[in-house]
Design a protein that fits this description.
Length: 423
């Protein structure tokens, strides 16, 4: 009996001595050798004697040059040297930091991704194993996910995108996700230059695949576009250019710049819209209202040019001019070289007839030419009257067109942007 008790006591002491507790460096190393590996030196253990203390690491940076500042991607790149300094010690430990590949991890996949579903391929991500067995793994990666974007309210659009994470290896009876907090932590969040994050939350649900149910984690983000840049650099210039196009009806026809002004504004608007097209979303399923607005503004500008051409043609219309001689005679009359009134010609002929027979005969011989001149003057007078009427008609068309096109432009502008703001 005594031998049996002695042997049992010795086995108990041996078994007790094989246990390791992570309070000092040697005991923490013992844990790694028994639980993880059997190496002489462990780079995963902090070199502190008292493992409850904080490791102080000094950091300094020696800047060499600034490589790039990209305002589009909101990135900043530099060239330099990073210096880290600390003090090596040895001591106790209550938490282990093994490599992720040496412990069990749930294989999490992105369900609604457009790229690789298994994105956690980093075997250097931090892992925290506490003395009571609780383990924390914090892998970092990019999370590309598909999201249905409805761009109809662009540039005042608001979207809700979801990243769906699932573990396909285990059913919900084997592995169940639990949301530690309903909100996504944003302690280290950096604001985006284009999008404003409104809400960020975590949901856990069940998804079925055949006869098997899986636990699904949904990371939901509600984002809203920051429209100020697009308004100042894109839409307001287009609105101002289209507004300037209305002044083509104010320019008088006599200046000769009516058509030139309209074509210049149309070309400027088309050139600017070609640059704008690279900045607006390209989607034929639900096109933005501003796309229709830009197209309508372009059509409106084109109509103003066409109407200006018609008004100029109406002003320069010469009815009754069939040959070059008539055009030359009209030009001479307009310049005052051969302009005479009908009354002056008749009085001149009557005075010459009363003076003597020779002068009367001479005037009779010249009568056909003077009669022809009188007819041309009368024809020119009627044409001038018609041209004046056409000028008045063109001027009134300008006034009516100015009012109509202004009303149409204001209606389109307020309708589109009020609709977008309402949505």
């Amino acid at each position: 009996m005594f031998v049996f008790v002695t042997l049992a006591a010795m086995l108990g002491v041996t078994n007790w001595s094989s246990r390791c507790y992570g309070q000092t460096y040697n005991q923490t190393k013992c844990l790694y050798e028994n639980l993880i590996n059997d190496q002489a030196y462990h780079t995963e253990i902090r070199p502190l004697i008292d493992q409850d203390m904080v490791m102080d690491v000094g950091v300094s940076f020696n800047l060499i040059s600034i490589v790039e500042v990209n305002d589009v991607s909101q990135s900043f790149s530099t060239n330099g040297f990073l210096t880290l300094s600390w003090l090596d010690e040895y001591g106790g430990q209550r938490r282990l930091h093994p490599l992720p590949k040496k412990i069990w991890r749930p294989r999490v996949l992105i369900l609604n991704t457009l790229q690789d579903r298994d994105i956690f391929d980093d075997d250097k991500a931090p892992v925290y194993v506490n003395y009571n067995g609780s383990t924390t793994w914090s892998p970092g990666s990019l999370f590309p996910a598909s999201c249905e974007l409805k761009m109809i309210e662009f540039p005042f659009d608001r979207h809700t995108c979801t990243i769906q994470l699932i573990s396909m290896m285990y059913s919900n009876k084997e592995l169940q996700f639990v949301a530690a907090s309903p909100l996504i932590e944003r302690t280290f969040y950096s604001d985006n230059g284009e999008w404003d994050l409104k809400e960020a939350s975590v949901y856990v649900s069940i998804v079925s695949s055949g006869n098997t149910n899986f636990s699904l984690v949904q990371l939901q983000f509600t984002i809203e576009r920051k429209p100020m840049f697009l308004l100042l650099s894109v839409f307001l210039p287009v609105i101002f250019l289209s507004f300037l196009d209305l002044f083509v009806f104010v320019i008088p026809v006599e200046s000769g710049m009516k058509i030139n002004y309209g074509i210049t504004v149309l070309l400027a608007l088309s050139t600017f819209m070609s640059m704008v097209s690279t900045m607006i979303p390209k989607s034929s399923l639900a096109m933005a209202y501003v796309v229709f607005y830009l197209f309508a503004v372009f059509i409106l500008s084109m109509l103003t040019v066409i109407e200006s051409i018609g008004i100029v043609c109406l002003y320069n219309f010469h009815p009754g001019l069939t040959d070059l001689k008539d055009q030359q005679d009209e030009k001479a009359v307009l310049e005052g070289d051969r302009v005479r009134s009908v009354s002056e010609l008749m009085n001149s002929c009557h005075s010459k007839a009363m003076s003597n027979d020779d002068e009367f005969q001479k005037s009779t011989r010249d009568g056909p030419n003077e009669t022809q001149t009188v007819k041309r003057v009368e024809s020119q007078t009627s044409r001038n009257v018609l041209r004046y009427r056409l000028y008045v008609i063109g001027h009134r068309i300008d006034l009516v067109s100015l009012c109509v096109f202004t009303i149409v432009w204001l209606s389109m502008t307020f309708a589109v942007f009020s609709r977008i703001s309402y949505l």
